[in-house]
Amino acid sequence: MRPMNNFRKDPETKNLVAAFEEQFKSGGVAFFEEKAYLKIIEFYEQDHQLDKALEAVDYAIAHYSYSADCYIRKAELLICLGKEEDALSVLEQACLYAPLEPEIGLLRAEALAGLGHTAEARDMLEGLKETAGQELLSNIFLVESIAYEAEGQHELMYYALKSAIELDPGNVAALERFGVCVELSKKYEESVSIHEDILDKDPYAAVAWFNLGQAQAYLGNYEEAISAYEFAFVIDEDFEEAYRECAGLCFELKQYHKSLKYFHELLEASEPDSEIFTSIGQCYFHLGKYHAAITFYNRAIQLDPLNDELFFYIGACHAKEESWSTAIHFFEKAIQVEEQREEYYIALGGAYQAVERMEDAEECFRLAVEANPEESTTWIHLITFLLESGNAETALEVAEMGEEESGSTELVFCRSACLFAIGRRQEACFWLGEALIEDFEMHRLLFDVLPELQKDKDVISLISAYTV
After folding, report:
1. Any residues with CB less than 8 A from the CB of 423 and at least 6 apart, and which?
2. CA angle 20, 39, 105 (to 5 degrees)
């Protein structure tokens, strides 16, 4: 789960970070209070700049070498960076200044689990349980779940996290890990009831709403999932992942206006990235607002200049507006970046066909087949193009090759269409019958490939004979 950096909205913290960074430009060494250092460290951590956070904590330790809190923060960062051995050394230092601090024991166990010493980690946690109060016990079960995850014991991980949440429903870290654990264990129905119980007691638990949304989405209860995500980011306006999941689900359900609304809200509340701009562009595209879509695709390209999909999307917008030369330009740019995407060749072939560059179009359709010969769609585009160009004999050869390569019933319908086009009606009817037996519902493809067959009495009669 990727939280937003709440400190970006805090002027005091932003000023602290600016002052901290200024010291590197000037070559001087600034002095901050311990609490200020901890804020700077957390800013970088929330911003996913762990190396800078580690740099800041080293400065803090240089100024406050007797602070257990500073050593503890450094150990946490080292564990996040996968440097558990270093974390254990730092925790030895922390223990000198706060030998009774339970957080040190928890981090030791987590580091040991990360190093694969899971039995030793669990033994350490068992020792901590003896004198632990309810809140600490919840965190002990949380770390215990990390040990079980390292062992691949997702069932035990699940029950450890369930215990952590039952002891302290407000344990956000446990709730976040529980959401991940539910995905691993597939216990979505249980997850719904557990989170509903939590929300009955605390309706403002944003992470619980998010986890509930994830479970409902997996179970196919999409409107309930959207509602749960909405509660999550209404309660916590900085809940980036809730915005993303909600907007994404609305998009998948073709609720484009709603999806667009939430992506725009996410854009206002977070640092812009290529993914958000692209998603907004996709919403506008499906709403038929192609100029707006292009605007956001271009913003995405500024952040991700070698993204072939963005060039393709821009080309698709121009194709919708029949600006064929511009569409061709962007489809070609997409292929320059990624030459193994059959849909790029199909789109480019269609654009060439629209401007009557038939040789170029045919080459593109053939390249689409080469890029993905197992996909029947690539063969169908080439066959359709050849039939439209009056090359029915070649189309039949392609249909037979495609059927052999992909093993698709769709290519049997295409073979039948080609035979009808050539005038070999008896063979055409035979293969149409074979295709109808294999997949009657697919017969509309015949008319897509060769539209005049919709008025062919023999074809209509044969299809009627196979109607259930």
Report:
1. none
2. 125
Tokens 């999932």 appear where?
225
C-alpha 351/C-alpha 316 separation (Å) is 10
For the entire predicted model, the pTM comes to 0.84
Specify if 304 maps to a domain. Answer: no
> pLDDT truncated to tens, each residue of the chain (468 aa)?
444 445 456 777 788 888 877 776 666 666 788 888 888 888 888 888 999 999 889 988 988 889 899 999 999 999 999 999 999 999 999 999 998 899 999 999 999 999 999 999 999 999 898 888 899 999 999 999 999 999 989 999 999 999 999 999 999 999 999 999 999 889 999 999 999 999 999 999 999 999 999 999 999 999 999 999 999 999 998 899 999 999 999 999 999 999 999 999 999 888 889 999 999 999 999 999 999 999 999 999 999 999 999 999 999 999 999 999 999 999 999 999 999 999 999 999 999 999 999 999 999 999 999 999 999 999 999 999 999 999 999 999 999 999 998 889 999 999 999 999 999 999 999 999 999 999 999 999 999 999 999 999 999 999 999 876
Cα separation, 433 vs 455, in Å, equals: 18
Number of H helices, E strands in the chain: 27, 0
| Residue 168 falls inside a structural domain | no
State the distance between the two ends of the chain, measured CA to CA, in whole angstroms: 50
d(CA 417, CA 431): 9
The structure tokens listed for 401 are 């090759």
Number of folded domains in the chain? 1
**Residue 462 belongs to a domain:** yes
Kindly compute the dihedral angle of the four CA atoms of residues 421, 426, 428, 433, in this order, to the nearest 10 degrees.
Answer: 150
Domain of 440 in residue numbering reads as 396-468
Q: Pick from 131, 130, 84: which is nearest to 109 by CA?
A: 84
